[in-house]
C-alpha cells in the first residue's frame, strides 16, 4: 500500500494543516480521505487488534485532527505527529479496556464475596460509602468533575482533563493528589480498613 504522504510535499502538507486549523471542512475531508485507511492499517499493524478497535482509534485521531491539530510545517513533522497521535489513542483505548476488565473482575469477586454478607461488614461498608460520598461533596466542583469523568465515565486522562480545561498530564497529577488526600483522610477515619 503506497503511503498517503507520497502525494504531499512540505508545502502542500503545511497548507493542508493550516487550512484544517482554520476550520476548512474541505481540507479536513481531504485529510480524512487521504489518511484514514492508512491510519487503520498502521494501527492494525501496531496493535494486532481487530478492525473495530482500529476503526475506533482512527476515529479518535480524526477527532483530534479536527479539534486541535498543531502547527506542523513539514511532511515529516505531520507524519511524526500523526503516528504519535495514533499510538497515544491506541494506548488510551487499550488502557480503557484493561480498566473495564479489572472493574468487571472486581464486581464479580465482590458479588461472590457478598453472597453471604455479614451484617456488621455490610454496615461498615455502608458507613464507608457514606463517608466517601460526603468527602466527595466537599471537593471543588472541578475536582468532582475530574473524578467523575475518570472513574464513572471511564474517560481517558486526556478526555478527563479536557472536560475541565486541563491537559492529560495535569489531570493525572491532580487526580493522583486528590486520591492521596482522600486515602490519607480515610486512614484516620477507618484505621482498620482492608489494605491498610
List the helices and strands and how they pair.
Blueprint: H1 10-21, H2 25-47, H3 51-68, H4 75-113, H5 119-138, H6 141-152, H7 157-162, H8 168-189
Helix pairs in contact: 1-2, 2-3, 2-4, 3-4
Note down, in words, how this protein is organized:
- With 196 residues, the protein is mainly α.
- It folds into two domains: 4-93, Rna Polymerase Sigma Factor, Chain: A; 118-189, Orthogonal Bundle (Arc Repressor Mutant, subunit A), CATH 1.10.10.
- Helix content is 78%, strand content 0%.
- It has eight helices and no strands.
- Helix 2 runs antiparallel to helix 3 (51-68) and helix 2 crosses helix 4.
- It is elongated and about 70 Å long.
- 16% of the residues are buried.
- The model has no long low-confidence stretch (mean pLDDT 87).
Gyration radius (Cα, Å) is 22 Å
Q: Which CATH-level-2 architecture of the largest domain?
A: Orthogonal Bundle
Instruction: Estimate the global geometry from the Cα principal axes.
Output: elongated
Helix content: over 70%
Could you give the order of the helices and strands? Answer: HHHHHHHH
Distance between the termini: 56 Å
* Total count of domains: 2
Q: Structural class, from helix and strand content?
A: mainly alpha
Mean pLDDT: 87
List keywords for this structure.
mainly alpha; Arc Repressor Mutant, subunit A; 0% strand; 8 helices; 196 residues; Rna Polymerase Sigma Factor, Chain: A; 78% helix
Question: Could you give a short description of this structure?
Answer:
By secondary structure, the protein is mainly α. Helices cover 78% and strands 0% of the residues.
